[in-house]
Specification:
Elements: E1 6-12, E2 32-33, E3 37-38, H1 40-49, E4 54-59, H2 64-70, E5 84-88, H3 103-109, H4 111-117, E6 121-126, E7 129-131, H5 135-145, E8 149-155, E9 164-168, E10 174-179, E11 188-197, H6 198-208, H7 221-228, E12 231-235, E13 240-242, H8 246-258, E14 282-283, E15 288-290, E16 293-294, E17 299-300, E18 303-305, E19 308-309, E20 314-315, E21 320-322, E22 325-326, E23 331-332, E24 336-339, E25 341-343, E26 348-349, E27 353-356, E28 360-364, E29 370-375
Parallel strand pairs: 1-4, 1-6, 4-5, 8-12, 14-17, 15-18, 16-19, 17-20, 18-21, 19-22, 20-23, 21-24, 22-25, 23-26, 24-27, 25-28
Antiparallel strand pairs: 2-3, 6-11, 7-13, 8-11, 9-10, 28-29
Length: 377
């Protein structure tokens, strides 16, 4: 079978306001995850492992740290003379100028560039979800069904009202679509990974977008395709988590520690990144560490239980962490006792300090202040 001309677009422009202080100084795809990685690493690694070689990243908010991390695509073998990684930033002075107002609006702003690539298929992915998926299988589903749009779906055991929800009929055809319904009719949600027929996508963008552009997928593009085109599902049976809230961010790390989360150490499906050039983690003689992940450069002399410790973090003797996520360069001093907390980059915590939460995720910002507590479903 002939290999189609595929363009992958990773949307990395979300402000991530629901993550509070974690995204005050960085875009959401640049947020640290699982100690050594950035969130965007997962999407780019799925594409690299699927042998997709033309990848565009659409940026918007606070892209500086993300650009530094992307390293011209080198960690994902995308630093190529032909194809490879291309970064698309907001612009002025031409058609589509300005800041996009939603994810389908991001595609509308760059419709001319997409058309110049002449893609047969366009893979569109969010940069803030945790999952592993062979995109080649999605392309096969799309081509076998003769579809104009294939939507990757999954069963969701939480609050489906946060997502697009679909009803699927025979042969995987999507019959109905609801966008963030108050009372979801099904538990089958849209993972925001799509495979579009290239010409059909470009035609839809021109038909739907006017002087004011578009909005979010669920407001315009997806309903248009469901009503006027052949739309099928590709079912994701494995783990999937949308890292859109503090509770989801914390829960994803706890599931990772429990072995029920995303599989990041599958040798057949590696997650690539641009790691910090640091020495391995060090564990002192006074340390008590169990069920935890320690990133490079960290030094642990206190108690760390069921926690994820980021690069260059220091946990001093007399400190106690349980069910915590601690990000780059934070120092947890003697007499600090934390449970159920996310500690932002660079925080310097001095004892005595005690923050213990149950069934909640508590965020401590870089200034060492408790800024938010969110119930975990």
């Amino acid at each position: 079978m002939r290999i189609p001309r595929v363009l992958a677009i990773v949307l990395a422009g979300g402000a991530g306001s629901r993550l509070d202080a974690l995204t005050d100084h960085r875009t959401k795809p640049a947020v640290r995850v699982a100690g050594n990685y950035r969130l965007i690493d997962v999407a780019l690694s799925n594409l690299a492992n699927s042998h997709v070689r033309d990848v565009w990243v659409i940026e918007q908010f606070l892209p500086h740290a993300l650009n530094e991390h992307l390293s011209n695509g080198r960690p994902w073998d995308l630093d190529r003379t032909h194809g490879g990684l291309r970064i698309l930033a907001p612009f002025t002075g031409g058609t589509g100028e300005g800041l996009p107002e939603g994810n389908s609006d991001s595609l509308w702003h760059f419709r001319r560039q997409i058309a110049s690539f002449e893609p047969e298929l366009v893979l569109v992915m969010s940069a803030d979800h945790l999952f592993t998926l062979n995109l080649t299988d999605v392309v096969d589903t799309h081509r076998d069904a003769g579809a104009d749009l294939t939507i990757v779906t999954t069963r969701h055991d939480g609050d489906a009202s946060r997502y697009g929800v679909v009803k699927v009929g025979t042969k995987g055809v999507i019959e109905e679509f609801w966008y963030k319904p108050e009372e979801p009719p099904t538990d089958l949600v849209v993972t925001e990974t799509f495979c579009f027929d290239g010409p059909a996508l470009l035609t839809a963008l021109e038909e739907l977008g006017g002087e004011d552009g578009l909005d979010d997928y669920g407001e315009d593009l997806i309903p248009h395709f469901v009503e006027n085109h052949t739309v099928v599902e590709h079912r994701l049976e494995g783990y999937w988590q949308d890292i859109g809230t503090l509770s989801a961010y914390w829960r994803a790390h706890m599931e990772l520690l429990d072995g029920t989360g995303v599989d990041l150490d599958d040798p057949e499906w590696p997650i690539f990144t641009a790691p910090p050039q640091l020495v391995p983690a060090r564990v002192g003689s006074s340390a008590d560490v169990a069920e935890s992940m320690l990133a490079s450069g960290s030094v642990v002399k206190g108690v760390v239980r069921h926690s994820v410790i980021g690069p260059s973090v220091q946990v001093e003797e007399g400190a106690h962490l349980e069910d915590c996520v601690v990000l780059d360069g934070a120092r947890i001093g003697a007499g600090v006792h934390l449970s159920g907390c996310i500690v932002d980059e660079g925080a310097q915590l001095e004892g005595p300090m005690e923050v213990r939460t149950k069934d909640c995720a508590t965020l401590i910002n870089g200034a060492g202040e408790v800024v938010r507590t969110e119930q975990v479903g």
